[in-house]
Every structure is written in C-alpha cells, then in structure tokens.
Design goal:
Length: about 100
Amino acid sequence: MLAQAGALSYMVPLGVSVAAGVRVGQMLGGRNLAGAKVATAVAVGMGWLAVIITASTFFLVRRPWGRLFSEDGGVQDAAADSMYMLTIFTLLDQY
C-alpha cells in the first residue's frame, strides 16, 4: 500500500521538473536569462505546491487508503499509522 502511494508521490514533481528543464533550456537557448530565471522560480514554486498538495492528500486519505486494499481493521489501522510517516517522507524527500 505504501509503495503505491510513495510511487504516486513522485509523478507530479517529476513532470514539473521535466517541463521546467525544457522551459529553462528554451529560455537559455534564446539567450533570455531573465526569462530563464522566471521559469526557474515558477518551477520551484510549482514543485513545492505539488509536494504540499501530495502530502496533504496523503494525510487526509490515510483511513480510506487502507480500506482500498483490505477489509481487515488491523491492516487499515496500520496503513493509517504508516501514512503519517509517508506524509513526512514526502515533504522531506521531494526537496
């Protein structure tokens, strides 16, 4: 369960970083240093926003997430407890 959630946490920041690399590269190729700085700042802001949204989602869906994978109450409780750790991991690992 946690592996699935952890894998999901990388998708949006990865997409933002790839798009940012392309945009900054275009700006630098066009010799637009100011535009590259703006694109970098926007990408960093979007990356932080994505991480905050992902971590908040993990925190808010910690109970329903366990129910998706098992009907056993013990498993659901363990999943909910582990989602706290995944939330912290997501915040610290992304940046």
